[in-house]
Amino acid sequence: MNVICRIVLAAFAGLLVLLPATINSYASDDLAALTYQVAGDELRTRVVINFDREPDVSTMLLEHPHRLVVDMPKTVFAFDKKSVEPRGLVDDVRYGMLDAERSRLIFSLKGPFAVERIDVIKNDNSPGYRMVADLVASSDRKFAEDLRTQNATTASTESTPTGDRIASAAPDEKSKAPKPFTVVIDPGHGGIDSGAESASGIMEKNVTLMFAQQLRDELAKIPGLRIEMTRTDDTFLRLTERVRVARQYEADLFISLHADTINRGNIRGATVYTVSDKASDAESRAMADRENRADAVAGITFDNETPEIADILMDLTRRETHNFSLSFAKNVVNSLKKDVNMINNPHRFAGFQVLRAPDVPSVLVEIGYLSNAEDEKLMLDPAWRTHVATRLANAVGEFSGLKTAGALN
Questions:
Q1: Which residues share a beta bridge with 183?
Q2: Following DSSP, what letter does each residue of 175-191 receive, concatenated?
Q3: I need a labelling partner for 108 at 20 to 30 A (CA). Which of 91, 269, 293, 380 fits?
Q4: Burial of 91 (0-12, 13-18, 19+ CB in 10 A)
Q5: Residue 378, phi-psi category: left (phi > 0), alpha (psi -120 to 50), beta (remainder)
């Protein structure tokens, strides 16, 4: 049967999608996309597609939603259906005939992204070629610049060198306006991941959301500050998705909020954590281990296949970001210790995954322990939450160089 007879009309922007086909059933002059592989997470994702021969591809960015379009000559797609399930930054994959002579792949992504590279490479140990696309989480502003650059040149561009082409964006007058100091508040846990639970049944995910909302309201009193939240309701988010949101908004500060439990009920008070490969103490290491397993609650396993980029510039960025994180942590401790109970040595550190954005200063604030009855009582008191949120907002104001209208002394 001719391959064209197996084409059916899909309800996606008029795109035609091929039904599964065996490799032997397409015309000999058709390009064949044999396998699809994807690895990574919401921060960095690599897509690898194997072809029977060298494909001539071109790419295009689209928005609403954020998409990468890859055009190529007439192609038969023989992907295993499970291989194209959502993973990492890629939320959806569609493919099929664009017209009688061309085919198209459309990748829908979870947010703004940058194409770091798209290369077509000859396979070393097997026949054919592979297309390798490295996609990284980006910001709304950067994605808009990339679109402007694309539209100013051509609607479809050659695959190499994609990174160089896209990075040459020329900002318009709007993008030249000063960027507001942006704080992303991250209420820990959510959805199926309830986090810690007190003896009376109070769940951490609810406490962190209540406090985050009050912190948002206090931060809103600081003129010139932009406030975003990773979640505003009872929603589950992967740890890397929380970091991706921070990068989407080009956060100048990321504050993750928690209210843990510990097997020593006499320990109470607030703690401020920064990231480190080596934990400051056994309790901090144990807490980081618990928090890093949050994804497992939803049946998600950590992906060790994330493509890594190791270069001097990235290392310098990480060091500068870490120094800013340490500076803000000091501000938080100084602001809270005036009249908010804190544990001994309140600034601690451990390997928290949610704090690992290389370019966003990040802290994790433990506002108290649900395993302590007195802390639990305070965290359920709106007046106490407002007071602590005001203290934390003061620390943000000092760090950002902006001041709160109702700052406490």
A1: 227, 253
A2: TTSPPPEEEEEEE--BT
A3: 293
A4: middle
A5: alpha
User: Who wins on pLDDT, 9 or 142?
Assistant: 142
Between CA 201 and CA 58 the distance in angstroms is 55
- Please provide the DSSP assignment of 139-177 as one string: -HHHHHHHHHHHHHH-SSEESTTHHHHHHT----TTTTS
Contact indicator for 18, 3 with CB cutoff of 8 Å: yes
Cα 58–Cα 63–Cα 67 angle in degrees, nearest 5: 50
**pLDDT-derived band at 294, boundaries 50, 70, 90:** confident
- What's the predicted TM-score (pTM) here? 0.75
3-state helix, strand, coil in the chain (%, to 5): 30, 30, 40
Residues 6+ apart with CB under 8 A from 319: none
Query: Backbone phi, then psi, for 137, in 5-degree steps?
Result: -60, 140
List, in order, residues 6 or more apart from 164 with CB less than 8 Å away: none
Q: Which residues contact 101 (CB under 8 A, 6 or more apart)?
A: 73, 74
Q: What is the dihedral of CA 14, 77, 51, 54, to 10 degrees?
A: -40
